[in-house]
Amino acid sequence: MYLSELSRHGEAIAEGKEAKSEIPSPANACLAWTLWAGGENEKALHQALVATELYPSSMFATVTAGLAYEHNGMYRESIAEFEHGIQTNGSSIFLGFQGHAFARSGDKENVWKKLEDLSVMLTWRFRNPFEIYKHPHSR
Fold this sequence. Notes:
By secondary structure, this protein is mostly helical.
């Protein structure tokens, strides 16, 4: 993935394919992301779906599959993939991606709902560390 971020996609893909044979699921997810970043959307989608089949709660694979679907204009599939991520991981990142997919599809009503859900989730999950930890010598 590092090589892909440096726009060295060919090298990144070669390393990802080599790693995939040794460590199937995580390497499939990383290879999927690298393929997606390199513009090979169809191959990325295939690798991401293989990874989610092997490891259903893989955040990388789920995000990559959702983005690949969205890039192909397959908004229902993209939204469903991000919903799967919300259900299996509970991470707010999926709400953001899902909101983006709704926006790309033109569904403004659900964009606002996802923004509201995201706002609620972020305030619900955030706790000030100073409220949680009380020093034993403090009054």
